[in-house]
Amino acid sequence: MDKLLDGIAKNSFVVVGRVGMDLYPDPPGTATEDATEMTVDMGGSSANIAAGIVKLGGKAALVTRVSDDSVGRFCVGKLKHYGVDTTHVTHIGGEYRNSLAVYESRIEGHQSTIYRNGAADFQMDEADVAAVDYGAYGALITAGTVFAAEPSRSATFAAFAHAKAAGLPVIFDVDYRPYSWPSPQVAADVLSRAAMECDMIVGNDEEFGFMAGDYAKGLDKARDLAATTASIVVYKMGHEGAVTFAGDQEIRTGIFPVDALKPTGAGDSFMAGLMTGLAAGQPLKDAILRGSACASITVSKPGCAPAMPDTATLTQFMADHPGPTAA
Fold it and tell me: Are residues 18 and 155 in contact, defined by beta-carbon separation less than 8 angstroms?
């Protein structure tokens, strides 16, 4: 536990995973098929986490590959706009492309369409991760999509080894996206293997249930990981809050109810808020609630990275909001 918290306290993270382009119809409430105008911004779980950390006062560098075209350059430009270090974002040519997400700012009838054919980020290889100076950071964060294909899968496991050799804790957002994987069986095996190598694991009830092979056994899976390999495991349950296992602690927390505009971006924002809260020395329960507040703010606004709060927005929200709900 001390190694994990000491690493996070440096508030400087190397984040491994994808950056992509997001498109969402304007105005909010518009269905994609009815759209005449769209807003474009940055997306991708790892990129969003990195941007959220920077907006809350931390430092983050992304390790990934992007397509050597206008969309790839757009993604790099947006990372720089949000203050994310792009030293280890490399371009790849040929037919590889950045991921594209088209999603709506509405809850009822919400549609998200993801394009991941020939994904550039899956071409990240072991040379990419070996080039990182891990000693310059406090912790490594990744999201589960990096494990869905080779060479990205092997490269990320290599990054884990490099990070551990440098004394960094490894933090894992399960982030299971079925469309990226060749089969559920491969996903369950690889994600479970990855989870066993991590110091901290964050996932929702469906993701832990998936790794356990039975939704009803998801909570037991989270509890077992905390008892055997991980120092902290956060088991998120949507509107029902979260259960966090840390040593002999079992911490139950609620949420900050809001009028949600969309369901996307909550998990990435939660991670950013949790990391920067712990980095600031907050007790674990307070940091989890900080992450929950970030998630609520993000789902109440259009976009993902642009919807994530900065420190002033988060502080004002937590001061004004009557929540959280009871655990």
Answer: no
Tokens encoding 269: 């924002």
**Is the N-terminal amide bond of 283 cis, ω within 30° of 0?**
no
In a domain, 326, yes or no: no
164-179 per-position pLDDT tens digit: 999 999 999 999 999 8
Q: In sequence order, what are the residues at sequence separation of 6 or more whose Cβ sits closer than 8 angstroms to the Cβ of residue 178?
A: 184, 187
Domain span including residue 213? 2-320
pTM score, whole prediction: 0.97
Number of folded domains that form the chain: 1
Residue 1 above 90 pLDDT? no
What is the domain-level CATH number for residue 253?
3.40.1190.20
Q: Decide if 325 is inside a domain.
A: no
| Residue 258 phi, psi (nearest 5) | -140, 170
Task: Look at residue 25 and tell me if it is in a domain.
Answer: yes
Express each pLDDT in 66-92 by its tens digit. 999 999 999 999 999 999 999 999 999
